[in-house]
Amino acid sequence: MISELIVPVLWLGGMAIVFGAILGYASKVFAVEKDPKVPMILDVLPGANCGGCGFPGCEAYAVSVAAGSAKVDSCPVGGASVAEKIGEIMGVDAGGSERMIARVICQGTSSNCSNKFEYYGIKDCKEAVIALGGQKSCNYGCLGFGTCERVCPFDAIHVTEDGIARVDPDKCTACGKCIEACPKLVIDLVPASKSVHVDCNSKDKGKEVKSNCKVGCIGCKACVKNCPEETIGFEDNLAKIHYDKCTECMICVEKCPTNAITAEMIQTKQKVS
Questions:
Q1: Contact at 8 Å (CB) between 220 and 205?
Q2: 37-90 has which fold?
């Protein structure tokens, strides 16, 4: 009886040793060498896994950086300090990349922009936009139902009492989650150091803009004509500031008849006067 059990046990044990040796050999032959820089890069990354770098997570970004297929300054959460550390690991200059933050390019508050109808549906921008594009008269403005607020992993954007979303520049990491979530495409990334912005997203012509919103861009081109540095363009009935050339002289803010271009007004008066 015992002898009948010993043979199968020995047979199975022998097979296990053989297959184990084969697998051990295969693991060495087909092993994918890991770049030692990957764990070093992971150590300096914040570990937010927000996807703001364009990769599905910090590890994927670290692998791409180590392989040379991603820039060392692509982590919006870590900013310049992390970029510098990654640059040291990779032996490259991180450069002085501009910090970017999200901005809601709309001033269509409840007092500035009228509604086409009363909306009683689910308080979500993606749901509201199904109903005739949303309740706002302006088809390009913030709906104010907080879809962006709910997806922000850094608590950096909130819908205020006046009915539109606002970004906290101190908390924003430019991860891009809010931009992806906004069905109206009314959120964009802007340089954190700049204070002059065209806060209107409407592509409508001036007459329609006037009827929908008190502070919309009406396409008068006063800003374009008066900019001494020629840094303001005009496309799709909307003024656009080229931030890389803007000196923030504030003349465009003063010339805009509808206050669609915004800045710190105290600073504006001092610079223009």
A1: no
A2: 3-methyladenine DNA Glycosylase II; Chain A, domain 3 (1.10.15)
Q: Which CATH class is domain 213-273?
A: alpha beta
CA dihedral sign, ordered 133, 138, 141, 142: negative
Q: Rounded distance, CA 217 to CA 223, Å? A: 10
97 vs 207: which has the higher pLDDT: 207
Burial class (CB in 10 A: 0-12, 13-18, 19+), 71: buried
Domain boundaries of the chain, sorted by first residue: 37-90, 99-193, 213-273
| Contact between 62 and 38 (Cβ < 8 Å) | yes
Q: Supply 115's token pair.
A: 């509604």
d(CA 190, CA 188): 6
What number does CATH give the domain 99-193? 3.30.70.20
Of all residues in the chain, the percent with pLDDT exceeding 90 is 61
The per-residue pLDDT for range 122-172, each reduced to its tens digit, is 999 999 999 889 999 999 999 999 999 999 999 999 999 999 999 999 999
